[in-house]
Design goal:
By secondary structure, this protein is α/β, with parallel strands linked by helices. It has 15 helices and 13 strands.
Length: about 350
């Protein structure tokens, strides 16, 4: 995709900037005259944050007179969280699910209570999970049940490394629990069939999109809603979106990496960077990039784009992220049982 190729070039240059900042942040700041900030994010936010960084830089310049340079890093959400734990000096993290940020908190890099620091559980925008199919939908895919049918090739990332993949799994689980009247064994059997149809289990959501769109593999991509819309935007005559009967409200979370920000002297900048995501300009930008704004008034401005009548479960229906992650995605939990067993 042309847009994605451009984003890849931008991503490469920003990673170089991040490495330079990590190796000599003060020298880089002094030389450029700009304060440096590193946002470690998950796969499908590349385009949004490329635009948001410009918006925030203009806002900060007008407010304080300071220049700011924001570098961004992207990958599977779980992998990105581990990179921060292992030394990637993020000032802020903007990851696919709260559990990945909790993992960074647990090693002491983020202070307790981060989820209450910003509005809406520190999730400034939301998304949901839909299907992307090739134009004409040759396999007649309409709902989750169709993904477990023989001969259907599914593309979805790996929940061990991708936050989006965790949302995918839980949405499918919610569907079968409703179909079976709450029978967990039936849900396990259904998910086992579905994952037997998975052709490629990529490490992140963007990799899965590229496998489906760029490489032409599979019949259906289980996708973030915003990723599916980006594909339609690029190839309107080649793909279409199928909305399943039930899905999940996906809340990508954000947090200041307190320990790193304190070391870098960027606490004020990092907090302002995340706070400004809730501004009207940033909320509209999120909507324009196919994320659902957390501001209900602005969300309604995009009612012609999003299906706001979808039946959506939430992570609360699974007991919250700590309970859900332990039950489904830790070693030996449900995903390992159905995929490896």
């Amino acid at each position: 995709m042309k847009k994605r190729m451009a984003a890849g070039v931008l991503f490469t240059s920003m990673v170089c900037s991040a490495l330079l900042a990590g190796c000599g942040g003060k020298a880089a700041e002094k030389e450029s005259g700009a304060r440096e900030l590193l946002n470690v994010s998950y796969d499908p936010t590349r385009e949004f944050y490329a635009e948001y960084n410009e918006l925030f830089s203009e806002y900060w310049k007008e407010k304080t007179g300071e220049e700011v340079s924001v570098a961004q890093s992207h990958g599977g959400s779980g992998s990105q969280a581990r990179s921060v734990i292992e030394g990637n000096e993020a000032d802020v993290v903007t990851l696919a699910l709260a559990r990945d940020i909790t993992a960074v908190e647990e090693v002491g890099l983020i202070e307790e209570g981060w989820m209450e620091e910003f509005d809406s559980n520190s999730a400034p925008y939301t998304s949901t999970i839909v299907f992307l199919v090739r134009k004409g939908n040759e396999k007649g895919i309409r709902d989750w049940g169709d993904l477990a049918e023989e001969g259907v090739q599914v593309i979805t990332p790996n929940p061990k490394t991708s936050g989006g993949a965790c949302w995918n799994f839980l949405a499918a689980w919610a569907y079968e629990m409703k179909q079976s009247g709450g029978d967990e064994e039936a849900a396990k059997a259904f998910l086992k069939k579905l994952y037997e149809n998975v052709l490629v289990l990529d490490s992140g959501a963007r990799g899965a999109t590229n496998t489906f769109v760029e490489n032409g593999q599979g019949d259906v991509l289980i996708a973030w809603e915003n990723e599916a819309y980006l594909s339609i935007e690029q190839y309107p005559e080649e793909y279409e979106i199928v909305t399943p009967s039930i899905s999940i409200i996906a809340e990508p979370s954000v947090a200041v990496v307190d320990s790193n920000a304190a070391e870098h002297g960027t606490e004020d900048l990092a907090k302002a960077y995340l706070e400004y995501l809730y501004s009207e300009d940033a909320q509209r930008l999120a909507g324009e990039n196919y994320y659902r704004p957390s501001d209900e008034k602005i969300l309604q401005e995009f009612s012609g784009r999003f299906n706001l009548d979808m039946e959506l479960v939430s992570i609360d229906d699974f007991g919250g992220w700590d309970a859900a992650y332990d039950a489904y995605f830790t070693d030996g939990a449900v995903f390992d049982q159905i995929y490896g067993g």
